[in-house]
Specification:
Radius of gyration: 18 Å
Largest sheet: 4 strands, mixed
Shape: globular
Number of helices: 5
Number of strands: 10
Structural class: alpha+beta
Strand content: 15-25%
Low-confidence stretches: 1-57, 149-154, 160-174, 316-328
Order of helices and strands: HHEHHEEEEEEEHEE
Strand order of the largest sheet: 6-3-10-9
Distance between the termini: 38 Å
Length: 330
């Protein structure tokens, strides 16, 4: 098995570079950056069988991760809703590989969306992710750095700015920061296949002030993908994925993670992680514990209510985020 989770040398051939994306991107405009979706799963088995010895494998590891999710007998009634955070941008970058020019430990993120009431897969729904790079910086907010930041009021921006903006974005609520650039790395969206799966090739996130290592996600249902983008429907789930402490600690010994001098918040210290394991977004991780640098597979099944609306601008039912007083960073 020689196919790697992420081969940076292939990115420029598979997808437009960041400059092209930035020039052509607009709200609700589809950019087909990565071809067809994930392959259909036909077998069963465990992720560890294919990836436990060498997590740098590609298609075999993807199939094994899908098999593990499909074979799981667990169907959670609710996947924890969380706040959207200040760094969401409605780019609608349809692509499998979100790495662009970022460096870090390869991460194959395999996600499945199912109906929480019936456990049936949510087909032709859209799953979106965004997260910081190995240095703790988000694209679109590079001038903010990895120090986190406040949550000024405003609606999420709908595309890259034409220049460096000043002042809060228009609108109210949501706690969205004003973008400082038009970069797009580590952001993407995909349509689920007939079994409810999507798979993203990315890098293991780093950390920044006030938060444990995490990835943001949204699940959109009831709409369709058209030439104008993902049209109609609703955002039925807004959540965050988390990483076990031992895996995060293992990454810290490798560049560029080792250059991050920000004090890291552990999972137990995080103000938003609800402490409920997979139901709260804790990813199932598979990697070689002696060589995490070879790559990590993270997988999780999200059981959601496809008819609900959870846009992440406030906790469901007007409540407050779980855990201690929420951090100003998200």
């Amino acid at each position: 098995m020689t196919e790697s989770i992420h081969d940076a040398s292939h990115v420029s051939h598979d997808e437009p570079d960041n400059a092209v994306v930035s020039r052509t991107l607009s709200r609700r405009r589809v950019l087909t950056l990565a071809g067809a979706g994930a392959v259909a799963l036909t077998g069963t088995g465990a992720v560890a069988h294919a990836a436990g010895r060498d997590a740098s494998t590609g298609s075999a590891t993807l199939d094994a991760a899908k098999a593990a999710a499909s074979a799981s007998s667990a169907c959670m009634r609710l996947t924890t809703e969380q706040i959207e955070g200040p760094y969401y941008i409605d780019y609608e970058l349809f692509r499998k590989n979100v790495v662009e020019d970022r460096t870090g430990i390869p991460l194959l993120l395999v996600l499945r969306a199912v109906d929480a009431a019936t456990c049936r897969p949510l087909r032709d729904s859209a799953v979106e992710i965004w997260h910081c790079d190995a240095s703790g910086v988000y694209s679109g907010y590079t001038q903010t750095g990895n120090g986190g930041g406040g949550m000024p009021p405003g609606t999420p921006p709908s595309g890259p700015p034409s220049g460096t903006p000043s002042g809060p974005p228009p609108g109210g609520g949501g706690g969205h920061a004003t973008p400082t650039d038009d970069l797009t790395w580590l952001r993407g969206i995909q349509m689920t296949d007939h079994q409810g799966f999507v798979a993203f090739r990315t890098v293991f996130p780093g950390w920044y002030t006030g938060r444990a290592v995490h990835i943001h996600t949204k699940v959109h249902t009831g709409g369709t993908r058209t030439s104008a983008g993902y049209t109609g429907g609703r955002t039925c789930h807004t959540g965050q994925f988390y990483f076990a402490e031992n895996a995060v600690k293992a990454t810290a010994g490798f560049a560029p993670y080792s250059a991050n001098t920000v004090e890291r918040v552990t999972l137990d210290q995080d103000s938003l992680y609800p402490g409920t394991g997979t139901q709260g977004g804790l990813l199932e991780l598979v990697y070689d514990h002696r060589h995490i640098e070879r790559g990590v597979v993270g997988h999780l099944t999200m059981a959601v209510d496809p008819a609900a609306t959870n846009d992440g601008e406030g906790m469901p039912g007007g409540g407050t985020p779980p855990g201690p007083s929420p951090s100003p960073s998200a």
